[in-house]
TrEMBL record:
Pathway: Metabolic intermediate biosynthesis; chorismate biosynthesis; chorismate from D-erythrose 4-phosphate and phosphoenolpyruvate: step 4/7; Aromatic compound metabolism; 3,4-dihydroxybenzoate biosynthesis; 3-dehydroquinate from D-quinate (NAD(+) route)
Recorded GO CC terms: cytosol
UniProt protein name: Shikimate dehydrogenase
Stored InterPro entries: Aminoacid_DH-like_N_sf, NAD(P)-bd_dom_sf, Shikimate_DH-bd_N, Shikimate_DH_fam
Any one GO molecular-function label of the UniProt entry: NADP binding
Organism expressing this protein natively: Plasticicumulans lactativorans
Keywords: Amino-acid biosynthesis, Aromatic amino acid biosynthesis, NADP, Oxidoreductase
Pfam families, per the entry: Shikimate_dh_N
Length: 288
């Protein structure tokens, strides 16, 4: 067997808090089965285990000893995991956040597939979108990954808004250091920024099943906008419903959810996943 061939059997997992509803395990296991692998993907739920981030060193060591090929990492561990790793990808280093750890040959290599996953979903879902100016709501962990992706896709100026203005300002500074002066700015006037924007990127929890509603006044949406969402429960949020009714091009949060898993599957297995098949499986689970 060559080093690039997919292993016949492997075990991976997801570490995070309150992850019983995650669709990631099912996506990985189904794609593994479709490729003829015995692929087991475990939830390691800190909430269920009564553990906090201080358990990460122990959990990583246990995963290595049990022969795990890799781990996905979610809230609240994406930053806390970094000091425990031996290497970081460029994206993970720039973001200061890791959502995928490959365990191989005694090494722990951290990646961020949230960033690449969002970018791939955008390229497929909004081809030809105008990228001069965009507004982003939310500058937290997911927001940082998405903002990096948005600028790497070619948005010339990204205006960031967050309930914590300092967080938006800090993210704008780090983005401008990486992508060039003035590429990202912290916004102060949402109506003015929206009037000038080509697109809106939504990275707050508003619109989730547990937190319904709109993240901004509906009258700020206009037909020339594209609107991109990262919430995927439900797949059509109130923001997307209202934006569509106003004539906007819209992109739901499913793409990022699927393509972060597509990229992680590739890293864990060395095999090329079938993205179309994973998208279809995800859509069937969300609509069930």
């Amino acid at each position: 067997m060559t080093s690039t061939a997919a292993p016949q059997s492997l075990i991976c997992g997801l570490i995070g808090f309150g992850i019983q509803g995650s669709l990631t395990p099912a996506m990985h296991e189904r794609e593994g089965a479709e490729q003829g692998m015995r692929y087991v993907y475990k939830r390691i739920d800190l909430d269920k285990l009564g553990l906090g981030v201080e358990a990460l060193p122990e959990l990583l060591t246990a995963a290595e000893r049990m022969g795990f090929a890799g781990l996905n990492i979610t809230y609240p561990c994406k930053q806390a995991i970094i000091p425990l790793l031996t290497e970081l990808s460029d994206d993970a280093r720039a973001l200061g956040a890791v959502n995928t750890v490959v365990l191989r040959d005694g090494k722990r290599i951290g990646h961020n597939t949230d960033c690449s996953g969002y970018a791939e979903g955008f390229r497929r879902g909004l081809p030809g979108a105008k990228l001069d100016r965009a507004v982003q709501l939310g500058a937290g962990g997911a927001g940082a990954a998405v903002a990096h992706a948005v600028l790497s896709l070619g948005v010339q100026q990204l205006t960031l808004f967050d309930v914590d203005q300092n967080r938006a300002a800090e993210l704008a500074v780090s983005l401008s250091e990486r992508f060039g002066a003035g590429r990202a700015v912290a916004g102060t006037d949402l109506p003015a920024a929206m009037a000038a924007a080509d697109g809106l990127v939504h990275c707050t929890p508003t619109g989730m099943a547990k937190l319904p509603g709109l993240p901004l006044p509906a009258e700020l949406l206009h037909p020339a906008l594209w609107v991109s969402e990262i919430v995927y429960f439900p797949l059509e949020t109130e923001l997307l419903r209202v934006a569509k009714a106003k004539g906007c091009r819209v992109l739901n949060g499913g793409g990022m959810a699927v393509f972060q898993a597509v990229d992680a599957f590739r890293l864990f297995t060395g095999a090329e996943p079938n993205a179309g098949r994973m998208l279809a499986h995800f859509a069937s689970m969300v609509s069930a």
